[in-house]
Write a structure and sequence with these properties.
34% of the residues lie in helices and 14% in strands. By secondary structure, the protein is of the alpha/beta class. Strands 2-1-3-6-4-5 form a 6-stranded mixed β-sheet. Helix 2 (30-44) packs across helix 3 and helix 4 (136-146) crosses helix 5. The radius of gyration is 27 Å and the shape is elongated. The chain starts with a strand and ends with a helix.
Length: 207
């Protein structure tokens, strides 16, 4: 039995909830989590770096000076890499850094990350995270009531613009919908505040 305490947004204990041990109670696999984080960051890279090669630099179509009887190098172009204004040797070009990771590895990684949060007591379950208007003070009050004053990831079951935009104004706080949670977001936070309904969604997704 793996039980966690449920709080409301005022930080008051309102009950308990049983977590699925196959998702929130496994032994974290650090190697798999590392591989998943590297994969996530690689897939996020834009790969837009670019420089001009000798053939792409403007100019240099004419031989700068004659080849014989001048006691100088046999230069064929003013755009050679060792000349000022010349091209770049092996110039970097836009490329795709992304690669695929086995689906089972991704599943094990997110389960390991969630389990590590439970074991380290860095997960806080809230019965309902909901706002009726844009009010950053309400989110700040919730964080203070729950004792989450560091880097926080708030997981909500569905898109709620009131919560998302109110939390975006707070440094170190990120909001994500349950079906969009990823390994990097989970491991990059000090506290994981998750709505009760969001846990149900995550459990169904990874069962």
């Amino acid at each position: 039995m793996l039980n966690v305490t449920i709080f409301n947004m005022e930080g008051i204990h309102v009950g308990e909830m049983e977590l699925e041990e196959s998702i929130f109670g496994i032994i974290p696999n650090e190697s798999v989590m590392h591989d998943a984080v590297i994969n996530y960051l690689a897939n996020k890279r834009s790969g837009t770096q670019s420089a001009l090669t000798r053939g792409e630099v403007r100019g240099g179509g004419r031989k700068p000076y004659k080849q014989n009887k001048i006691d100088r190098s046999r230069a064929g172009s003013i755009r050679m890499p060792h000349w000022r204004g010349g091209g770049v040797v092996f110039a970097p070009k836009p490329r795709d850094y992304s690669y695929k990771l086995n689906k089972k590895v991704k599943q094990l990684a997110i389960k390991s990350a969630l389990s590590s949060k439970v074991q380290n007591k860095e997960i806080i379950v809230v019965d309902e995270i909901k706002l009726e208007n844009y009010r950053t003070k309400s989110i700040v009050a919730m964080l203070n009531a729950l004792g989450a004053d560091t880097k926080v990831l708030i997981v909500i079951p569905t898109i709620n613009n009131f919560v998302i935009k109110s939390a975006n104004n707070i440094p170190g706080v990120e909001t994500v919908v349950a079906d969009s949670i990823n390994i990097y977001n989970v491991l990059n936070c000090d506290k994981l505040i998750i709505a009760k309904e969001a846990i149900t969604i995550i459990t169904e997704m990874h069962s």
